[in-house]
């Protein structure tokens, strides 16, 4: 049996969804297929998102920005939106049983020096790590209880 797919959506699929994908993939391991996509993909993963994740030992440098339509023919057990626009644009996916909306600030809109922008990426990364870490713990506990 294939592991259940958890799809994390945001608008551009350049920052928040990749931060969440990397964090959740590391936390859940191979028992789940964690992916991310966007309703209007930016066509790149933000370099400061990659840098912020490197700082906590997670490599997302090979990630690519994807459109959520790539997943319309796949069984997606859980959809998690991390911004309001994606929540509104999100379709139902085949096999979808769960949907969560946990919005976070978009660090791509940060201004100032690179260090000031990176501080925003770190803050959002840490917020995502807290929320998705708790979610992962609950999913793993439920898996063990079976």
UniProtKB/TrEMBL annotation:
Give an example GO molecular function: arsenate reductase (thioredoxin) activity
Keywords, A to Z, come to:
Arsenical resistance, Oxidoreductase
Q: Which domain of life is it from?
A: Bacteria
Ranges of residues in domain Phosphotyrosine protein phosphatase I: 4-138
Xref: InterPro entries? Ptyr_pPase (IPR023485), Ptyr_pPase_sf (IPR036196)
Query: What SUPFAM superfamilies has UniProt attached to this entry?
Result: Phosphotyrosine protein phosphatases I
Q: Which CDD domains match?
A: LMWP_ArsC
| Membrane-traversing stretches | none
User: Sorted alphabetically, which Pfam families does this protein's record hold?
Assistant: LMWPc
According to its UniProt record, the EC number is 1.20.4.4
* Name assigned to this protein: Arsenate reductase ArsC
Its taxonomic path starts at: Bacteria, Pseudomonadati, Verrucomicrobiota, Verrucomicrobiia, Verrucomicrobiales
């Amino acid at each position: 049996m294939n592991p259940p797919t958890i799809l994390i959506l945001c608008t551009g699929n350049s920052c928040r969804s990749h931060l969440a994908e990397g964090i959740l993939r590391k936390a859940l391991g191979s028992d789940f297929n964690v992916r991310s996509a966007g309703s209007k993909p930016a066509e790149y993963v933000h370099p400061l998102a990659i840098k912020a994740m490197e700082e906590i030992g997670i490599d997302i440098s090979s990630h690519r920005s994807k459109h959520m339509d790539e997943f319309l023919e796949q069984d997606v057990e859980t959809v998690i939106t991390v911004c309001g626009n994606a929540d509104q644009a999100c379709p139902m996916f085949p096999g979808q049983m769960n949907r969560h909306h946990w919005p976070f600030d978009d660090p791509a809109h940060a201004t100032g020096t690179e260090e000031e922008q990176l501080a925003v990426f770190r803050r959002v990364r840490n917020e995502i790590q807290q929320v998705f870490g708790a979610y992962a713990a609950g999913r793993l506990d439920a898996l063990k209880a079976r």
